[in-house]
């Protein structure tokens, strides 16, 4: 095998540098008069060609299954800090919260191409009622990377009417929140090939009122 490989590149390599070399090489084979040798050579090249086609098909298959595969970006709340923490526990009917939160949000793009998304709003729900919202600016995430940014959210109990439920949660010192949002955008896999892809956020998390911390974040 090694000997055959050495034979074939030799007449080919000087070819482009000096055209006559290729011709003399061919002539030599012809002068040798061995049609059998030429046939074997042709057979060998055909084999190389078939092997090359198989190899190329494999490369294209792997390429489409990995690099060109479009994955849904992961969009979630990673952590949060709090600026103002105002919780009123006065009974009756004057239990409120008014909390300034800085949520750190992450968009993880596992694609081999940039993900560009439009601006959207992220809403925070407490027991099914909207208690706050944050603005997400139009931007983009590089290929196979995670973009992290902060979103300011004012959480207020204005929309929440069940005093008894709020009283129970304030006594337990835990507010369980849900955050929802949808990013709409495109994955640019090559210069010409764009694929629309939206990423939904659906996270639940606990605001611990005594420690003023966010914990137990879990996202779909
Ligand atoms: C907290 O809220 C109560 C009533 O909701 C208000 O009277 C008080 O001034 C607020 N405190 C701060 C520090 O915002
Ligand atoms: C609730 O309590 C605050 C003081 O923390 C008071 O200023 C406000 O008037 C009360 N509101 C109601 C509806 O009782
Ligand atoms: C909540 O607090 C912010 C400042 O931290 C204040 O501007 C806003 O009026 C408060 N909202 C309510 C309903 O108390
Ligand atoms: C209350 O709910 C409405 C609609 O559901 C929403 O537009 C508004 O922003 C909410 N208020 C707060 C303080 O989240
Ligand atoms: C969000 O996830 C929870 C479970 O984690 C599920 O019960 C709920 O239906 C989901 N909501 C949406 C809008 O997907
Ligand atoms: C939430 O977090 C607290 C402390 O961080 C932990 O004790 C508790 O088990 C967690 N709950 C859930 C449902 O994960």
UniProtKB/TrEMBL annotation:
Pfam families: LEA_2. One of its GO terms (cellular component) is plasma membrane. One of its GO terms (biological process) is defense response to other organism. The keyword Aminoacyl-tRNA synthetase does not apply. Residues 24-36 have a biased composition (Basic and acidic residues). It is a single-pass membrane protein. The gene is LOC113728276. Its main location: membrane. It is found in: Membrane. The chain crosses the membrane at residues 45-68. It comes from Coffea arabica (Arabian coffee). Keywords: Membrane, Transmembrane, Transmembrane helix. Residues 1-36 are annotated as: Disordered. This is Late embryogenesis abundant protein At1g64065-like. Residues 105-203 form the Late embryogenesis abundant protein LEA-2 subgroup domain. It comes from the Eukaryota.
């Amino acid at each position: 095998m090694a000997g055959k490989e050495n034979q074939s590149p030799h007449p080919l390599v000087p070819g482009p540098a000096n055209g006559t070399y290729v011709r003399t090489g061919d002539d030599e084979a012809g002068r040798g008069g061995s049609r059998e040798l030429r046939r074997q050579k042709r057979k060998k090249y055909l084999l190389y060609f078939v092997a090359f086609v198989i190899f190329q098909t494999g490369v294209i298959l792997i390429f489409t299954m990995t690099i060109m595969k479009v994955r849904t970006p992961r969009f979630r709340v990673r952590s949060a800090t709090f600026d103002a923490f105002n919780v009123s526990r006065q009974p009756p009917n004057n239990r409120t919260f008014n909390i300034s939160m800085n949520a750190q949000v992450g968009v993880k793009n596992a694609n081999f191409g940039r993900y560009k998304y439009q601006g959207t709003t992220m809403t925070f729900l407490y027991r099914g009622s909207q208690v706050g919202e944050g603005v997400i600016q139009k931007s983009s995430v590089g290929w196979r990377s995670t973009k992290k940014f902060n979103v300011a959210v004012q959480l207020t109990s204005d929309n929440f009417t069940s005093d008894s439920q709020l009283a129970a949660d304030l006594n337990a010192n835990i507010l369980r929140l849900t955050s929802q949002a949808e990013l709409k955008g495109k994955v640019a896999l090559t210069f010409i090939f764009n694929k629309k892809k939206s990423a939904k956020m659906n996270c639940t998390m606990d605001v611990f009122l005594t420690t003023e911390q966010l914990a137990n974040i879990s996202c779909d």
